[in-house]
Amino acid sequence: MNVLQLLDPVSLALVFGGTLAATLLRCGWRDTRAALAALAQLPRRPFDVARVRAELAAQVREIEQDGILRAEPHSFGDGEFDDLSDALVRHRSIRALHDEHARHSARRRQISETATRVLGEAAELAPVLGLVGTLVALGGFSAAAGGDYARAIATAVVTTLYGLVLANFVFGPLAGAVARRSRAEETAREDLIGWLAAAVERSIPRSRIDAGEPASGDGGKVAA
């Protein structure tokens, strides 16, 4: 079989363009834009755990040496950890650290779930648009005088094939890739937050903890 016979730009444009248009109409521009933003992140480097941890370690050493009262917020080039550093120094509270992380994590999960849903909708709609292309091809050629039924059937098969390929080899895998990347990043961030909270808590003088100073578990202040 000649693979070139399966290349039909018109049919591909009909199925692919129709799928995008139908997805946009079903999901709305806001959610579709979130999906596009998530797709744009896929080729980029994943969350750099080693770099952020090294920079966090510098702030932990500063807190251990000078105390939380004299510590200054650090900039890590990561929106969440920049906010975490500011919250930790401003509130001197490990609870504030966890609260800030929860806020960022919820926002990231919402974006990931929205992107996954939109791509899932596209995967669901692609075969439908393939069927639409099939019906258009058969209807158009059968209506013409002396219609070329062989070509009509070939075009119909190609459009159906495009719909299935887009659903199972493009949109479906992209939805899975977005979900996997999101899960991996959340796991890495959770581990970093746990390490940071434990490291900061170790910097609290033992005498203050023994005296009843609140620690990380109850939202108390981290003493210098």
UniProtKB/TrEMBL annotation:
Main localisation: membrane
Entry's transmembrane regions: 6-25, 125-146, 152-179
Coiled coil ranges: none
Pfam family, one: MotA_ExbB
Location of the protein in the cell: Cell membrane; Membrane
Domain (MotA/TolQ/ExbB proton channel): residue spans on this chain: 104-190
Membrane-protein topology: Multi-pass membrane protein
Assigned keywords, A-Z: Cell membrane, Membrane, Protein transport, Transmembrane, Transmembrane helix, Transport
Family listed: Belongs to the exbB/tolQ family.
Protein name: Chemotaxis protein MotA
Organism, scientific name: Pelagerythrobacter marinus
